[in-house]
Amino acid sequence: MAPVTNGRLLFNEIPTGYPEPGKTTVYDTSQTIDLENVSLRGGSLVKVLVLSSDPYLRGRMRDVTIPSYSPAFPIGEPLDNHGIGLVLRSEDPTLKAGDHVYGILPFEQYTIQERGARLHVLKNEVKIPWSTYIGVCGMPGQTAYCAWKEYALAKKGEVAFVTSGSGPVGATVIQLAKAEGLKVIASAGSDEKVAFIRSIGADVAFNYKKESTLEVLRKEGPINVFWDNVGGETLEAAIDTAAVGARFLMCGCISEYNGQPPYAVKNLSLIVGKQLKISGFIVFNLLAKYGQQFYAEIPKRVASGEIKYLEDATRGLENAGQAILDVQKGLNKGKKVIVVAEA
Amino acid sequence: MAPVTNGRLLFNEIPTGYPEPGKTTVYDTSQTIDLENVSLRGGSLVKVLVLSSDPYLRGRMRDVTIPSYSPAFPIGEPLDNHGIGLVLRSEDPTLKAGDHVYGILPFEQYTIQERGARLHVLKNEVKIPWSTYIGVCGMPGQTAYCAWKEYALAKKGEVAFVTSGSGPVGATVIQLAKAEGLKVIASAGSDEKVAFIRSIGADVAFNYKKESTLEVLRKEGPINVFWDNVGGETLEAAIDTAAVGARFLMCGCISEYNGQPPYAVKNLSLIVGKQLKISGFIVFNLLAKYGQQFYAEIPKRVASGEIKYLEDATRGLENAGQAILDVQKGLNKGKKVIVVAEA
User: Fold this and answer.
1) Can you give the residue ranges of the Oxidoreductase N-terminal domain (chains A, B) (predicted)?
2) Cα of B37 to nearest chain A Cα, Å
């Protein structure tokens, strides 16, 4: 078989505001690959099926000299993120042709993975769509599950407030909270998203662009658990309406990722008197403790329909730059997945 | 014996800025008491010896309809706070004449305490000054001890930053941190205070009015534990220079107690990536867990000279209003105690 084009999405330029397709990222078709003969050097050849577009990717579009919890993208190289692949050939004893794998994959159609690359073979005994393994059954679901277990310390009858409620993290949090008997207040940025979060059980669901978060929380709170994907003014409203001893789970800060001036929070003195417990976290550091439990539990609950999810697919790696931008702008309707190949 | 004057410091008016003696509080000598014949109704008659002036009192000078962790002072009534008293007469079986007691006492020279008032009889087997039982061996020392035990999770070799380092809370924290092998950075608002915090073991001590907290922390950090008595810009500097996984112990926010406009903190998004753990707390809720341990350990360490403290006494209840103001302005040199009577 002749070599085929290996399309790649390259990181082209550090953005100052939103990451622009064609400027921040560029789709490149200059590379080819001979799938039958390319040397594996003891590793494996993986066909990339689905890639994930997540809010945190914006943080990786920075100068490589700035340290953070996840590595910066080097200019001129393909982006990478959690994805699902199909092993085509393998010299790595832990993988075999036909395996579906989950792990950090480059934004390219085909990839040679070194021996010992940390790819998790998906058994998928419950027969759910492969793409769910980058959403509710992947990193976003793990984020929700692990951090909720570690930090929510929720009791039946308490009140939780979840932002970005229709995203894969927020939607999972809502359902975990409901399953534990909490009253759940959740917000999102469109009426369609609000309808979805209501359909998965949120007791109070609202469009934060139409209703004041502070007013809703004043009416429906005080809140005992706050899941923060947003930061800024939303965080200030949550502090204002927090119950004594509330737990704040600090997962993200999308309100500041794209060059927006940071909103200055003015009510932090309430942390003392309300005895708030505020925990920032990164899922990678919680997986050792909860990862096994997660895979034993969540795919089953998804397969049974107990945990619902919403997926928003972009087809074609050439459209991945737009898929990344859409998530930064909150234009995705549910978990944004990039379908690179159908099988 | 004829009735004697019972001087009282009354709460006169809710302040908008600093609590002004003669305006916010008024010293009143209109009441008399017959020490031998006054009816105890099953309680006890206590002579107030020493009262405590603490930063948190400012929060109690509010409208009684505003809820908070400690009760508001009613207008026209004496203030109250932790103090040391001497039991003169008692019908309460848990107290006897001659006992020294610790507990919440009104700002008056003599007080009738109901039976079952929560007064703790001080044994003082280690023979330290009674006044230390409202400082390093009282509520401020308990605050430092209990919260450090619960939230610092410190490891030898880590770096702690302590604000208000010469106050009774901060000075105790510095010494607890040093005893556990941490490098301690501490700040205070005068060179005299800085000299004291250096004398009790702080590795880096600075006058925050002369040096930039942010610059000192950039040079001496990153910090693993932050003891916050101040809030505002200091908190922002601590977030900026925190190590991954740092613990923030939120004890107070003196920068905002007296009507100063709250400083707006702009870098809260760092909480996520740095995985900070921020804990607000109130000592009253930690005492059940650590109180017994505290009394078994700290008075001994004070008596042996291992834990040092600095006391700043104001003599005469008529000067208590000024003693309260001085603490709000940071003019006290060490633990501010109000000596109401010598014995």
Assistant:
1) 41-114
2) 42
